[in-house]
């Protein structure tokens, strides 16, 4: 079954933003190390880990953004900030790709980056491997937004090997994962038609549409023209963290009980 893996978010290239974010979210139960994540000499990511899911905050260190997806570099340099790609894990990427190709959807393969070009924790993880231990594809953005839908398939032992690197983690504070994602679409009809092509399991429920993933539900709502946003709801086993809330660009994270 499909599983929510991570959400990529573009942020300004300002370390102070990350330092302020760390001070704000740590008391809310989300420990955060801005130095976590993969990096090249021209872009850097920082991960907020929530169980096996994460928010990947990405900033360009140089306008050329070597190592990052070229179309994302162009959008970033044009001023795009906020949700960039919602990535879903699958165990059948080859079959899924064939189905998407039959529907004539535009598919982007993940940009290949040599491990020797990656700085930080992934250097230790990858060692002398010639490629990362997963495969990814992305689809064109949802109409009216700049957020793509991506799919990732990990090699058989990759997730177990990645576990020691998923730190610091909100799971340590009883915040176990993202159980609900609410996506607000400014181009409603076009967006829902596009999502229905990708996800046959998309179902209508009153004034919203829903997709069930393993441990997570995706909800889609109509928004005002030009107003795109993503709201994530996590689950906490500790009452002291319930009600905590923070924002990163057009993404809001709220802790529920």
Structure description:
It is a single chain. The protein has helices spanning 15-25, 70-77, 93-102, 121-126, 158-162, 188-198, and strands at 3-10, 43-50, 53-60, 82-89, 107-109, 134-139, 148-154, 175-185, 203-205, 208-213, 216-222, 229-236, 245-248, 251-256. It has 257 residues and is of the alpha/beta class. The protein has a single domain, classed as Roll (2,3-Dihydroxybiphenyl 1,2-Dioxygenase, domain 1). The chain has a seven-stranded mixed β-sheet. A seven-stranded mixed β-sheet has the order 9-10-11-8-12-14-13. A hairpin with a 2-residue loop joins β2 (43-50) and β3.
Name the features:
257 residues, alpha/beta, 2,3-Dihydroxybiphenyl 1,2-Dioxygenase, domain 1, seven-stranded mixed sheet, 14 strands, 20% helix, 36% strand, globular
Layout of secondary structure:
Blueprint (H helix, E strand, L loop, with lengths): L2 E8 L4 H11 L17 E8 L2 E8 L9 H8 L4 E8 L3 H10 L4 E3 L11 H6 L7 E6 L8 E7 L3 H5 L12 E11 L2 H11 L4 E3 L2 E6 L2 E7 L6 E8 L8 E4 L2 E6 L1
